[in-house]
Amino acid sequence: MYDLEFIKSVLKRKLPRKRYIHSIGVCETAAWLAEKYEVDREKAKIAGLLHDYAKYLTKHEAREYIRHFNIIIDEVMEENIDLAHGLIGAELIKNEFEINDKEILDSIRFHTTGRNEMTKLEKVIYLADYIEPNRKYPGVDDIRNIAHENLDKAVLMALDNSIIHVISRGRSIHIDSILARNEMLKKLS
Ligand SMILES: [Fe+2]
Ligand SMILES: [Fe+2]
Fold first, then answer.
1. pLDDT at 2
2. Which ligand is nearest to the CA of 109?
3. Which of 62, 140, 154, 180 could cross-link to 147 by cystine, CB 3.0-4.6 Å?
4. Among candidate residues 163, 154, 167, 83, the one with its CA nearest the CA of residue 124
């Protein structure tokens, strides 16, 4: 359906080497999770590869694209404009790669914050971003282990980790991360 090798060659030119390697890691981990949790494997690979496509915009460029694509962002995202790289990335990918699949685009859109009622593909990309093999942070192996057993539980752990990290930096938590966490808690109770 999509030309993975072409996408990889574009990413290799566009992203710093470290981020390119991360993107390959997310792609492979997403493919594994997709297989395990019965999600379309090809969509997971494409979304995994492209999820950080807009990660290296300057603040100015990010704001320009937000205006250009009429993306609506809230105050927390306005203050932490890096959070918008998923939303912007999805629009750029639509235009530059002619990828119009809503599931793929949404999984890229919401990989930075999560959201209420995440689709399975959104969970797969969110989680793959956290546990791909190049990720190294305290607790990552615990999340990796749970990823083998329960998708929702592993996503909850990743959300917890992310929210704690945001708190430790004294930043505001995006409402969508809270909604995603509350929903996972409810589903698991
Ligand atoms: Fe990202
Ligand atoms: Fe990422």
1. 81
2. 1
3. 154
4. 154
pLDDT digits (tens, 9 = 90+) for 48-94: 999 999 999 999 999 999 999 999 999 999 999 999 999 999 999 99
Q: Which ligand is nearest to the CA of 108?
A: 1
C-beta atoms surrounding 104 within 10 Å:
27
Domains along the chain?
4-188 (1.10.3210.10)
Amino acid 98: pLDDT:
92
* Ligand 2 mean position, distance from CA 49 (Å): 9
Gap from CA of 187 to ligand 2 centroid (Å):
25
Ligand nearest to the backbone CA of 85: 1
For range 149-172, the mean pLDDT: 97
183 Cα to the center of ligand 1, angstroms: 22
Distance 127 CA to ligand 2 centre (A): 10
Q: Please state the pTM of the whole predicted model.
A: 0.97
